[in-house]
Write a structure and sequence with these properties.
Length: 345
Amino acid sequence: MKKTYNDINILVIGDSCTDVFMYGNAFRLAPEGPVPVFNPEYEKQNGGMALNVKHNIEAIGANATLLTQNEDIFKTRYVDSRTNSLLLRVDTNDKASRISKDVLQSIKNNSYLDVVYDAIIISDYCKGFLTEEDIDEISLNNFNIFLDTKKILGDWCKYVTFVKINFSEFERTKHTIDKLDISEKLIITKSDDGCDYQGKNFPVEKVNIKDVSGAGDTFISGLVCEYVKSNSVENAILFAQECATKVVQKKGVCTIWIWKNITLCIWHFIKIKFAEDFTYLAKLWLYYGLLDVWIMGIFGFCYWHHLLFIHLLGVVITFLRKISQQLSKILWRLKLVIGWCFLTS
C-alpha cells in the first residue's frame, strides 16, 4: 500500500538549538573601534539544527520524534534589517552532553520505545551529542539511515544509506571519501548549482536568496519524507530542492509549510497517479483548510473552486474510508462540516 506523508514516521537524532535572529540597524561605527553600533528593533526565534529538521518534517505532514541533548544551545545572529546582512553571531552554551548508552542501545531495527520508524535522520552538528562510534552503532543496527554531519567522513559512516553533504563540507572531507566506498551514497548540495548524486547534476530554480540558514535542514527533511513515500532517490532530491528553494527566500530559519504553497501542490499533483490525485488534494483541503489550490491534468489549468463541488462527494467517501482507522469519526465529520461551510459561503 502506498504511503502518504501522514503515514510516515521518522526518528531524528542529533544536536539541537534555539536560533535567535536580532534584527536592527547599524548606521555608524563605534568611536572606540571600527565596529558597527547595532540598534536592535525586533527579535525572532526558531528551533534550530536537529529541532529544525523535526519541525520541517512535521510541516510537510509526516510524523517526527526527536532525540537530542538536555542542554540549551543558543545561536544569536545580529542582522541588519535593511540589507539582511549578518553583522555578528554569538553562540551560547555551545556543547552538548553525549547520548546515553541506554538510549543508544534501545534504537534497533528502526524501533525506539515500541515505535517503528520508516527512516532515521542523523543530524550531527558536532556539538558532542553524537560521536563517530555512536553513529556507527546506530547505522549498524538500523536501516534507511540518512546522515547529515559536520564531521570528516570515515569508516564509521559506511553503513548509512545516504550521506547528505554540502559542497564546502565535501571539499573538506574529499581526501577521506576517495579511500571509502561511499561515493554512491553521497548527495552533494551545491547551493544555486543544484545537487549532485551518482555523477548526475540536478539543477535548481534560480531565486532571490535572502537567508540560507537552516536550508540544509529543510533539504534533508524533504529528501527523507519523499524517499520514504516514493522509494525514489531522484524524486526525493527534486522535492527536497523545491522545499529548500522556498525557505531561502525568507529571512531567518524557516520551515516549509506545504499546505500554504501552491507550487508544491502542483508539483505533487504531477508526481502522483491521476486516480489518487483528488484524494490527496481533498485531504489537503479538508485537513488544512486550503482554498487556493491549483490543479493540473486533463482539465488543464483550472481553479479548484469551480471543480471541487463536482468531485468532492466521491473523493470524500474514498478519503474517509482510508482515514477512519486512524482518526475518530467525530473529528472528521466536524472537518467536513467546516469544509462545506467554506464551499457554500
